[in-house]
Specification:
Helix 6 packs antiparallel against helix 9. This protein has about 475 residues and is an alpha+beta fold. The chain has 13 helices and ten strands. The protein has three domains: about 60 residues; about 120 residues, Phosphorylase Kinase, domain 1 (2-Layer Sandwich), CATH 3.30.200.20; about 230 residues, Transferase(Phosphotransferase) domain 1 (Transferase(Phosphotransferase), domain 1, Orthogonal Bundle). The chain is about 35% helix and about 10% strand. Keywords: ATP-binding, Kinase, Nucleotide-binding, Phosphoprotein, Serine/threonine-protein kinase, Transferase. It is an enzyme of class 2 (transferase). Belongs to the protein kinase superfamily. STE Ser/Thr protein kinase family. COT1 subfamily. It catalyses: L-threonyl-[protein] + ATP = O-phospho-L-threonyl-[protein] + ADP + H(+); L-seryl-[protein] + ATP = O-phospho-L-seryl-[protein] + ADP + H(+).
Length: about 475
């Protein structure tokens, strides 16, 4: 039969597809892309390990140990393949303590039953993710952490799921977060601020190099490891230019009503319902910090460190993270964020009017370089320091003498006083209930999850093979 006798295929008309069809097409593309990307990466890594082994075996120094090395490498590869086939599940871990609770889930300190290693296990409830339309957030965090292998970012080891929850197994950073240190010490010297700011610069640079914008840089998301060095966490609001994550979150916040709108008065004034934050009123500052920390775990969020362009339906890029760093440097040196107010709506309005609301108190002595750096970061996008790359930040006078390549070899200003590998004294766990919370479910029978509890999370599973597994 002649090929020309076949009827031509029907014309494709994607514009006629429904919303669900377009969404499923996009999800299938992402799942297939992720599957083959991981497969190719693993094949290349195994090939590189084989080449490295063959190179070592050619050395005369290992002539008598060739069979031993070859056999040992074969066992390691077998363990690697077994690791890929092993199914992760909640029963593989024993809970030590709950160390954090959020609006959509919780974080527990767990120990792996098989080898006794300690991790932080983040649990997110599927029904909450679906009902609150948070699927883009969980996908963004999973993608960012899976692609990162930086020493400045909390390491994600594996993700798995059951019928009601999503799980992210991450490294445990026992030093708590930067907000806890700010609550304890209230204010930092310029040297200590310079140290933490330099490490945060390295962390932001690492995620920018992967093509991600964090969009939620704040002290609560800056964790401290066992040595007191920082690790960037919580990528739930991150955005990749290669994937279409939701960006309407901040615009919704700005539009939320407030009962205090009638009292705003002149929006160009620095006293827009401001808190009376002064050096002589540190008790009020810490009380504000504690209430702000509670807000961080609510559905409202914390707006104090958000760049103004995120509130508008306009383009933005990597420079929004440098605005957030500028606000953190200000808080470390002054004692409170530059746009702090008693309610989120007033903070939003102070941020969008930053030209008139940013000021430095007279009773806090700051160097010229620190003030200049803050003003260059808390600035319009077209003039913000960092818009042309991280080098212009590292070369600023505030960081004179800092070697950004050796920071993790320097002793940190605050080393957590830990007594064991499961010490949680740096976390505010006293007020957290330690009982197991039942996961809310829309699935009905847990043995037969409905499609809406399964389909949105296809491709969520991730496994990172570490040398420690061998």
């Amino acid at each position: 039969m002649n090929v020309s006798e076949f009827a031509s295929p029907p014309e494709k008309r994607p514009e006629s597809y429904g919303r669900n069809a377009r969404y499923n097409q996009k999800r299938c593309f992402q799942v297939a892309q992720g599957f083959f990307k991981d497969a190719v990466r693993r094949a290349r890594e195994r090939n590189d390990r084989l080449k490295e082994l063959e190179r070592r075996l050619e050395s005369p120094e290992v002539l008598l140990r060739r069979e031993q090395l070859w056999g040992h490498s074969g066992k390691l590869e077998a363990r690697y393949l077994r690791f890929l086939r092993t199914k992760e599940q909640l029963s593989n871990y024993s809970v030590v303590k709950t160390i954090g609770k959020g609006y959509f889930g919780e974080v527990k300190l767990v120990r792996k039953i098989q080898d006794g290693r300690v991790y932080a296990l983040k649990r997110l409830f599927k029904s909450e993710m679906i009902s609150k339309e948070q699927l883009p957030r969980v996908r963004a965090e999973r993608d960012a952490l899976a692609e990162s292998d930086s020493e400045w970012v909390t390491k994600l080891f594996t993700t798995f799921q059951d019928n009601t929850s999503l799980y992210m197994l991450m490294e445990f950073c026992p030093g708590g977060d930067l907000m806890a240190i700010l609550i304890k010490f209230q204010i930092f010297s310029e040297d200590i601020t310079r140290f933490y700011a330099a490490e945060i610069v390295n962390a932001i640079e690492a995620i920018h190099n992967l093509g991600f914008i964090h969009r939620d840089i704040k002290p609560d998301n800056i964790l401290l490891d066992r040595g007191g060095h920082i690790k960037l966490a919580d990528f739930g609001l991150s955005k990749s230019f290669r994937k279409d994550h939701d960006s309407c979150y901040y615009q919704e916040l700005l539009q939320r009503p407030t009962s205090q709108m009638s009292r705003l008065g002149n929006r160009n004034s620095v006293n827009i319902d401001a808190i009376q934050l002064t050096v002589s009123n540190r008790a009020q500052i810490n009380e504000w910090r504690r209430s702000r920390r509670l807000m961080a775990y609510s559905s409202v969020g914390t707006p104090d460190y958000i760049a103004p362009e995120l509130f508008y339906d306009q383009g933005y890029s990597f420079e929004i993270d440098w605005w957030s760093l500028g606000t953190i440097i200000y808080e470390c040196l002054v004692g409170w964020p530059p746009f702090a107010s008693e309610n989120p709506q007033d903070t939003y309005r102070k941020i969008v009017n930053w030209q008139h609301t940013l000021f430095f108190p007279d009773d806090v002595q700051l160097s010229h370089n620190s003030v200049h750096l803050i003003r260059c970061m808390i600035n319009s996008p077209e003039h913000r320091l960092g818009r042309n790359g991280v080098a212009e930040i590292k070369n600023h006078g505030f960081f004179a003498g800092v070697d950004f390549t050796t920071l993790r070899r320097i002793r940190a200003p605050f080393e957590p006083p830990l007594t064991s590998e499961v010490d949680t004294s740096c976390f505010p766990v006293d007020d957290l209930p330690q009982t197991e919370d039942p996961a809310p479910s829309l699935a009905g029978d847990d043995d037969s999850p409905t499609p809406e509890m399964f389909l949105p999370f296809i491709g969520y599973t991730f496994k990172r093979f570490e040398k420690s597994y061998s």
